[in-house]
Amino acid sequence: MTLDLGVLISGRGSNLQAILDAIAAGKLDARVRLVISNRPGAPGLRRAEEAGAPTAVISHKDHPDRASFDAALVTALQQAGVTWVVLAGFMRIVTSVLLDAFPGRVINIHPSLLPAFPGVSAQGQALAHGVRITGCTVHLVDAGTDTGPILAQAAVPVLPDDTEERLSARILAREHELLVHVLSAIAAEKFAVRPSATPSGPSRVELVGVPSALGVVVDD
């Protein structure tokens, strides 16, 4: 199936670019229906415009609270015909207003092997803890901070002379690959998201053909 994507960004938009490039190359069956930045002048907006993708700026500063900001996002996304939402370097915590509008269809990319090092500066956290392997995770978004069901992960070694900047750059390269990998799997209907038995519980991810697994680890 063709995915109708809404991509939320706050900065340079390199993961957005990976999506746009994969679509242009015929590697991803998707359309970017709308790119929204909460920051005017975000470099990612220019990337979207150059690819012919519609853009909008909805500043969180123009709204009194997170719920009203998310309501504005939902209105714009729904009007654009979006069915899947991708948080690609979106530096805002989303609320139930957005999650309920797109149940089980909000995806985030995070620069660590979750559940390790959630939140901000995950690469710095990895260095501070002295781990030898870190990476990135694509997961469904829930009400917690980087706690949603994991869809796929990619490992990245931590080198002895790594700085946060060097490690971040290597992880970012894997993020681009992994995000496209997951979106392609969604388009190919390789897994389904099923609601939990209780309304307050997390979503349960069922992978077609691998019903006992909770995610796919990609480490090539």
From TrEMBL:
Protein family (similarity comment): Belongs to the GART family.
Q: Provide a GO biological process annotation.
A: 'de novo' IMP biosynthetic process
Q: Which residues form the active site?
A: H110 (proton donor)
Which superkingdom does the taxonomy of this entry point to?
Bacteria
Q: What is this protein called?
A: Phosphoribosylglycinamide formyltransferase
Q: Where is the Formyl transferase N-terminal domain?
A: 7-183
Q: Which gene encodes it?
A: purN
Q: What does this protein do?
A: Catalyzes the transfer of a formyl group from 10-formyltetrahydrofolate to 5-phospho-ribosyl-glycinamide (GAR), producing 5-phospho-ribosyl-N-formylglycinamide (FGAR) and tetrahydrofolate.
**Residues flagged as site, Raises pKa of active site His:** D146
Q: According to its record, what are the GO cellular component terms?
A: cytosol
Q: What is its EC number?
A: 2.1.2.2
Q: Which pathway does it take part in? A: Purine metabolism; IMP biosynthesis via de novo pathway; N(2)-formyl-N(1)-(5-phospho-D-ribosyl)glycinamide from N(1)-(5-phospho-D-ribosyl)glycinamide (10-formyl THF route): step 1/1
List the NCBIfam families: PurN
Positions bound to N(1)-(5-phospho-beta-D-ribosyl)glycinamide:
G13, S14, N15
Keyword field: Purine biosynthesis, Transferase
Query: Which InterPro entries does the record match to this protein?
Result: Formyl_transf_N, Formyl_transf_N_sf, GART
Q: A GO molecular-function term, please? A: phosphoribosylglycinamide formyltransferase activity
Q: Does the keyword Transferase apply?
A: yes
So what does this thing catalyse?
N(1)-(5-phospho-beta-D-ribosyl)glycinamide + (6R)-10-formyltetrahydrofolate = N(2)-formyl-N(1)-(5-phospho-beta-D-ribosyl)glycinamide + (6S)-5,6,7,8-tetrahydrofolate + H(+)
Entry binding sites for (6R)-10-formyltetrahydrofolate: R66, M91, R92, I93, V94, N108
